């Protein structure tokens, strides 16, 4: 029994392997009934066969079909020169219908012999066809053929259908000969922006009264004038103030400065306090400063003898004034250098002598003119 069971097991295993090989060897083109019959047989496992290359082939075929359709729709002209047509031309337009004032483009292409030139007239014609720009390019295709391309940027301001060219295109050869050829019939339809449903124009209105702004203008002018006057007044006032600040203070006359200094010295109380030397030093300095400022004599820098000698030769002071000045300066020198001690009366008399000398030598005041 054990050997028999092992034999049966081996036979079943061999049959399953044979069935699997038959399924793998099944051709793709077998009828669907046979495939369904084999798939529905009891005891046989289901097997799914995949074909990964089939979608790639379909996509490639679709791409080639679309590319062929696109190439066929371009309908590019054959510009190969022949004996019957040595310089073929082609003309294309971006659109055959445009709204009024909308730009459009026309392309011209010609293949002509080398060393020749193409002369294409402009399509411009008043408001019907207006040329905005032109671009011309030339390039050699080979040793015998030259390609010329011309692009016109056009627009129209006149509704209707317009013929772009009525003249011929010329090809001027290298030897000076020229050939002419008519351009293809190319028209453009310009659509009006009016739809026909616009309302009719109204009649002319009557005259309208001009608004009276005279009062407002007068008020504005008055305000502007007041502002200008105020600005001028402010500028003048500010300038005068600046001049007043910048103007130097007029100098005090020498005799007034000397009299003020003498009064100040008298009120210091040095006479009563017996500050003899200080009193005479300052009294002498006041008088010498007055003489320098009044008569331009360098009194503070000179000795008494030098000063008296200069005053005598300058004839600025009278003889009496020279005697009084000499006596005053000598008394001051005695106090400063000889330690003399005059009493209070002598000190007051020295003050009065200096004051009288200033009063007598001050500038004469101008006489008032009697009316």
Report the total helices: 10
Weakly predicted, low-confidence segments = 1-8, 26-31, 44-52
Average predicted confidence as pLDDT: 77
- Measure the end-to-end span: 180 Å
How are the strands ordered across the major sheet?
1-3-6-5
Query: Quaternary status of these chains?
Result: single chain
- Most strands sheet: 4 strands, antiparallel
Query: Tell me, what's the shape?
Result: elongated
| Strands, total number | 10
- Whole-number radius of gyration? 65 Å
Percent helix range: 40-55%
Instruction: Determine the strand fraction and express it as a percent band.
Output: 15-25%
Structural class: alpha+beta
The SSE string, one letter per element, is HHHEEEEEEEEEEHHHHHHH
Task: Describe the protein's architecture and organization.
Among the domains are: 89-191, Sandwich (Jelly Rolls), CATH 2.60.120; 254-361. A four-stranded antiparallel β-sheet has the order 1-3-6-5, with no helix packed on it. It has a three-stranded mixed β-sheet with strand order 2-10-7, with no helix packed on it. The protein is built from ten helices and ten strands. It is an alpha+beta fold. Mean pLDDT is 77; it is low at 1-8, 26-31 and 44-52.
């Amino acid at each position: 029994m054990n050997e028999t069971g092992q034999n049966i097991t081996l036979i079943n295993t061999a049959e399953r392997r044979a069935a699997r090989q038959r399924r793998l060897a099944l051709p793709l083109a077998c009828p669907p009934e046979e495939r369904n019959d084999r798939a529905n047989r009891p005891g046989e496992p289901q097997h799914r066969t995949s074909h990964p290359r089939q979608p790639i082939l379909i996509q490639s075929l679709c791409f080639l079909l679309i590319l062929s359709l696109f190439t066929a729709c371009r309908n590019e002209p054959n510009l190969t020169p022949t004996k019957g047509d040595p310089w073929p031309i082609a003309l294309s337009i971006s659109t055959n219908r445009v709204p009024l004032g909308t730009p459009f483009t026309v392309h011209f292409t010609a293949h002509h012999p080398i060393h020749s030139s193409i002369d294409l007239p402009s399509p411009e014609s008043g408001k019907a066809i207006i040329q905005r720009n032109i671009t011309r390019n030339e390039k050699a295709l080979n040793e015998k053929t030259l390609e010329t391309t011309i692009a016109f940027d056009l627009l129209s301001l006149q509704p209707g259908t317009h013929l772009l060219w009525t003249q011929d295109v010329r090809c001027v050869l290298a030897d000076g000969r020229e050939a002419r050829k008519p351009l293809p019939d190319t028209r453009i339809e310009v659509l009006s922006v009016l739809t026909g449903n616009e309302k009719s124009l109204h009649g002319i209105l009557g005259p309208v009264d001009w608004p009276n702004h005279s009062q407002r203008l007068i008020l504005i002018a008055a305000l502007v004038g007041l502002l200008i006057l105020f600005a001028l007044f402010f500028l003048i006032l500010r300038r005068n103030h600046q001049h007043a600040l910048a103007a130097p203070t007029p100098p005090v006359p020498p005799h007034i400065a000397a009299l003020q200094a003498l009064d100040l010295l008298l009120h210091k109380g040095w006479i009563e306090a017996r500050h003899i030397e200080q009193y005479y030093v300052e009294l002498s300095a006041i008088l010498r400063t007055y003489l320098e400022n009044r008569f331009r004599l360098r009194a503070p820098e000179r000795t008494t003898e030098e000063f008296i000698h200069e005053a005598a030769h300058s004839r600025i002071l009278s003889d009496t004034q020279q005697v009084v000045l000499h006596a005053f300066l000598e008394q001051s020198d005695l106090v400063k250098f000889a330690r003399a001690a005059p009493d209070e009366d002598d000190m007051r008399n020295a003050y009065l002598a200096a004051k009288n000398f200033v009063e007598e030598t001050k500038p004469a005041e101008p006489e008032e003119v009697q009316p």
